[in-house]
Amino acid sequence: MTTQPSPALSTEAPAEGAAQASKVPHRWRNLAVLTGVTVVDNTEAGLSATLFPTIAAALKLQSSHLGLLAALGKIIAVPAGPAWAWLAGKIGRRKALIATTLAGGVFGIAAGFSQDFVQLLILNTLMSASIIGGSPIANAIIADSFDDSQRGKAAGYFYGFMSLISSFIAPLIALFTGITDGWRFGMWTIGGICILAGLLVALLLKDPGVGASEKQLADLSARERLAPKVTVRSVASLFRIPSFSIMMLSRLLSGHLLITIFGIQFLVVERGFTNAVAAIVLVPFGLGYFAGTAGGGWLVSLLDRILPDRGRVAYLQGAQVLFAAVAFFATQFDYHNIGIYSAFWALIGFAQGANPPANRPIVAAVVLPELRGQAFAIFLTVFETIGWAVFSLGAGALASSLGIQAVFLWTLVILMLVNAAVLTALYFCYPRDVERVRDTLERRRQEALHQA
Questions:
Q1: Phi and psi at residue 210, to the nearest 5°
Q2: CB within 8 A of 100, min separation 6: which ones?
Q3: Measured in Å, how far apart are the chain's first and last C-alpha atoms?
């Protein structure tokens, strides 16, 4: 990682540093490149679900196989996500991102040659393990590229464009299902996209350095920021941060993750649409998700000014309630019309997209800069994965006896309301945790000034 020369230091720096923090070099180019990397992860996660009806017909599979395929693809993230974050600390975040995408491309292409479910399961799992590191590393770089007041907007654009692009890629890939062994071409396509994303990172990404966007540290060089070395003990200390622990629990209760796994299968099996017709809803879902993330980023910034340190909490809580309400009407009634489902999927996408502009900045605000890579790895690849795996395996098994509609009622509606109730605890601990991080960074600044 290259260190920028340190500008003249000033003991008045929080104000001066704030101006400099908002001007981290290459931040918008970084955001665009990182969006491309995460499109790969997002598309891969939904690809099996999109193509599964065709894969099931070719390999004689059932819904339970989809649950196993999706679950193992996520379970592997539990060790792989933190491992990639650790590797990024050793070889640099840029090199780690290149490695994740190129390895994922190789395994994705190999998965397209699978002759049975076991081969597909192994290769798809290896592809997931390879590219899962992109998301936590990307979120850490974004947190270092944008200061706290801008992270909601940055996260909104990041996740909005990611979902928008992948929502168009998935239906295009679904068109392969109309030809013999078309799902293989889908796997080969996603493998090629992985490799392309890796090349773009190599050519265009510029890592700003850990802590570059913090107003207390912005005018210090990377060496002067005095970030302690990341250890197992320091990573374990994340769970002593009350707000972080609540966010991890909330991730375990995030039933809305199930819609991307079983949404298409629900429309095919329970509502009688063909695979290609059902996949149409992915476009309005992506448009809705984009509106929720991009618009949500601006709304979070507004609420932060009106209700400092609590506005984003209220926003996140409201997003859970909104999702539950929309999901109830979208999944518990039969409308016999793909246009109506498309409208509901757009609203579901909007409600789900409302989350990243608040939950990512909340995590970043309560965690010290050097630990954010591991914090996001735990948040996005460990706890999200545990929840996703439980939902996938449980839903796959229960769907055979109860039906996907009944499973959706409990996970997309009831569990999301429970999630909203749990988030109430953030009103009490989040402001204290944010203040603790600010105080620590200010102490580091003063130490750097005395040593300069």
A1: -65, 130
A2: 37, 84, 130, 131, 132, 133, 134, 137, 198
A3: 22
Among 297, 8, 308, which Cα is nearest to 142's? 297
pLDDT at site 3: 40
Q: Which of 392, 307, 425, 418 is nearest to 64 (CA)?
A: 392
Provide the H-helix boundaries in 175-270.
182-204, 232-236, 242-252, 259-269
Model pLDDT, residue 220: 62
Close Cβ partners of 422 (under 8 Å, ≥ 6 residues apart)? 246, 249, 250, 253
DSSP characters for 293-357? HHHHHHHHHHHHHHSTTTHHHHHHHHHHHHHHHHHHHHHSS----HHHHHHHHHHHHHHHHTSHH
Lowest mean pLDDT among 154-168, 276-290, 333-347, 408-422: 154-168
Contact 205, 30 (CB under 8 A): yes
**Distance separating alpha carbons of residues 419 and 424, to the nearest angstrom:** 9
What's the DSSP call for residue 228?
P
User: What sign results for the dihedral spanned by CA atoms 69, 70, 73, 77?
Assistant: negative
Confidence band, pLDDT 50/70/90 cuts, at residue 137: very high
- DSSP designation for 3: P
pLDDT reported for residue 376: 92
- Please tell me the distance from the alpha carbon of residue 236 to that of residue 49, in angstroms, as a whole number: 34
Residues of the chain with pLDDT > 70: what percent? 86
Tell me the mean pLDDT in the region 403-432. Answer: 91
Amino acid at site 308 = P
- Contact (Cβ atoms closer than 8 angstroms) between residue 364 and residue 307: no
228: how many CB neighbours lie within 10 A of its CB?
10
pLDDT of 297 strictly over 50: yes
The pLDDT, as a whole number, for residue 48 is 61
Structural contact between residues 134 and 37, judged by C-beta atoms closer than 8 angstroms: yes
The Cα 291–Cα 284 span in angstroms is 10
- Contact, 131 vs 101, CB < 8 A? yes
* 7, 220 Cβ separation under 8 angstroms: no
Q: How many helices and strands (H and E) does the chain possess?
A: 22, 0
Asked whether the beta carbons of 377 and 80 are under 8 A apart, the reply is no
Alpha carbons 4 and 276: distance in angstroms, whole number? 51
Q: Contact 39/104 with Cβ under 8 angstroms? A: no
Q: Which of 409, 441, 222 is nearest to 330 (CA)?
A: 409
Residues 328 and 413 sit within 8 Å (Cβ to Cβ): yes
CATH topology of domain 27-209+233-451: Growth Hormone; Chain: A; (1.20.1250)
